[in-house]
């Protein structure tokens, strides 16, 4: 069977993971998995955080998500989308992309999504402090972690082209 890579798309909510992931799946035939949605469907969330207005995924649930995905990840050819990355097994991913968005763009996107107050501020701060980038650098070999600018439609197109190119090379090297 042809070996295909697993790709992690991570970053602050609103940076464009879902948009990139779904389009990438279309172009490559890889399977797109949104871990946030998966956790919601399987009722893997621990509860609902009233202050942040979002579902909370606790550690036990994280392990459940990992269990649920294990078999599929072992087969390869999966694009995983999640706004965190420290609880996935390191061995799952051949490459990790951290999408990055400038504040002004991110602010508008989150506001359009209906985020207000503390939740909006916290997410903007998460991006300013590059929290997810640091999480990724601590969780994976630094040489497989790449930041991708995700501000405008041209960025999306360039990111798609680069990832498709990387994947084609990976397939040549590994088959
Ligand atoms: P995420 O999955 O990281 O939460 P998303 O894919 O839902 O983010 O995108 C959030 C919003 O931003 C959505 O309205 C689409 C838009 N968007 C995503 N990537 C973009 C880009 N490169 N340029 C302009 N808008 C983008």
Structural class: alpha/beta
- Separation, N- and C-terminal Cα atoms: 9 Å
Q: What compounds sit in this structure?
A: 2'-deoxyadenosine-5'-diphosphate
Seen as an oligomer or otherwise, the chain set is: single chain
Spatial sequence of strands, sheet with the most strands: 2-5-1-6-7
Number of helices: 7
Task: Return the average pLDDT rounded to an integer.
Answer: 91
Helix content, binned percent: 40-55%
Query: Low-confidence parts lasting 5 or more residues at pLDDT below 50?
Result: none
Q: Give, in order, the helices and strands.
A: EHEHEEHEEHHHEH
- Shape verdict: globular
The largest sheet is:
5 strands, parallel
From the alpha carbons, calculate the radius of gyration and give it in angstroms. Answer: 16 Å
Q: What's the total number of strands? A: 7
- What percent strand? 15-25%
SSE layout:
Elements: E1 7-10, H1 17-28, E2 31-34, H2 35-41, E3 47-49, E4 54-56, H3 59-75, E5 78-82, E6 95-100, H4 103-112, H5 117-128, H6 131-139, E7 145-149, H7 153-174
Parallel strand pairs: 1-5, 1-6, 2-5, 6-7
Antiparallel strand pairs: 3-4
Helix pairs in contact: 1-7, 4-5
The structure holds 2'-deoxyadenosine-5'-diphosphate.
2'-deoxyadenosine-5'-diphosphate is lined by residues 11, 13-19, 109, 150, 152-153, 155-156.
């Amino acid at each position: 069977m042809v070996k295909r890579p697993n790709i992690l798309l991570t970053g602050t909510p609103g940076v464009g993971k879902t948009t990139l992931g779904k389009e990438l799946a279309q172009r490559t035939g890889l399977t797109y998995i949104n871990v946030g949605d998966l956790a919601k469907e399987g009722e893997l969330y621990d509860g609902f955080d009233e202050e942040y207005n979002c579902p909370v995924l606790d550690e036990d649930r994280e392990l459940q998500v990992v269990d649920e995905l294990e078999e599929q990840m072992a087969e390869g050819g999966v694009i995983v989308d999640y706004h965190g990355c420290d609880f996935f097994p390191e061995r799952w991913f051949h490459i990790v992309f951290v999408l990055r968005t400038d504040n002004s763009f991110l602010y508008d996107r989150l506001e359009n999504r209906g985020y207000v107050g503390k939740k909006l501020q916290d997410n903007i701060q998460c991006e300013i402090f590059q929290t997810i980038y640091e999480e990724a650098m601590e969780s994976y070999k630094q040489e497989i972690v790449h930041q991708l600018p995700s501000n405008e439609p041209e960025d999306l197109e360039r990111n798609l082209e680069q990832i498709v190119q990387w994947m084609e090379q990976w397939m040549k090297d590994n088959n």
